[in-house]
Structure formats: C-alpha cells, structure tokens
Design a protein that fits this description.
- Helix 3 packs across helix 5 and helix 4 packs parallel to helix 5.
- A hairpin with a 7-residue loop joins strand 5 and strand 6.
- This protein starts with 5 loop residues before the first strand and ends with a strand.
- The strands form two sheets. Strands 3-2-1-4 form a four-stranded parallel β-sheet. A two-stranded antiparallel ribbon has the order 5-6.
- The longest helix has 14 residues.
- The protein is built from five helices and six strands, in the order βαβαβααβαββ.
- It is of the alpha/beta class.
C-alpha cells in the first residue's frame, strides 16, 4: 500500500523573512519527507531570483504558482485586505485548500489576516466553534513542539 501524498500550499511571501525562510524550509522539507508535495504561492520572478542567488534548486515535488501581491505584516484592516487582494500569495494559498487543490496552508503572514482568511475562505469545519492556531514553539527538542 502506498503512502498518501500530503500537498501543502505555502505562502512563500509571508512573514518577516519571506523568501529567505520559506524557500530553504520548503526544499529541506521535501528532502526529509518523501510523502510531501509543496506549491509555493508568490512572485515567481522573485522566487526564481532568490533560487539563483542562493544556488538553490526546486525538485519535482515543489511547484510555483505566480501570486503578484503580498499581504503586509502591519495590515490594520484584515477583512478588507482579504476581500480586496484575492491575488495575494496568502489568499491564493487559502483558496487552493478551499478548492481541494491542497490539503493545508503554511504561512508566516500576519496573524490577523491568517485568521480572517481561514474564516472567510476555507470556513469552519462542521461542529467547529473556534479557530485554532498551531505555532511551532522552540524547545530543547530539535523537532520543536506544536502549541494548539
């Protein structure tokens, strides 16, 4: 019996460090997990420039979907931002899950926008009353600990 491949939509442009962490982390992840496929959402030209500059190569389990806009970390109107910027890397990654094109989203984008995108785009599962965030907490264990 073969393993199910987990496909994740990655907001490559999100977070304080953007491409520096998401691309390297994505490449490391598919090297470590053979049942993982990643789709990077972000500015394709910037992603390719970053790969070339850092001598990194994508493999057959990582693809890119061009998403020209970015949701800024200091966004003060998350509802309007999610409605207005449907072609941002964050919103496009969440829409991939809604459409069944990915199993989950990974983003380091602004927390308030991540919560709103989860509620507005994906919606809650039946019976679910609250949204949960699951950050990776640094610990002495090299694998870290997830906090729900």
């Amino acid at each position: 019996m073969s393993k199910k491949v987990i496909k994740l939509a990655i907001d490559a442009m999100g977070g304080d460090f953007g491409l520096d962490t998401t691309i390297k982390g994505s490449i490391d992840a598919v090297k470590e997990y053979s049942d993982l496929e990643l789709v990077l959402y972000g500015d394709e030209e910037k992603i390719n420039e970053h790969l070339k500059k850092n001598n990194l190569k994508l493999n057959e389990r990582i693809s890119i979907v061009h998403s020209p806009k970015v949701v800024d970390m200091g966004e003060h109107e998350p509802i309007a931002e999610i409605k207005r910027n449907k072609d941002s890397s964050l919103v496009m990654a969440f829409n991939a899950v809604k459409k069944g094109e990915a199993d989950g989203v990974v983003t380091s984008g602004p927390t308030q926008c991540v919560i709103i995108a989860g509620l507005m785009v994906i919606r809650r599962l039946p019976g679910m009353k609250r949204l949960a965030l699951c950050p990776n907490m640094p610990t002495f264990n090299p694998k870290g600990t997830l906090l729900l």
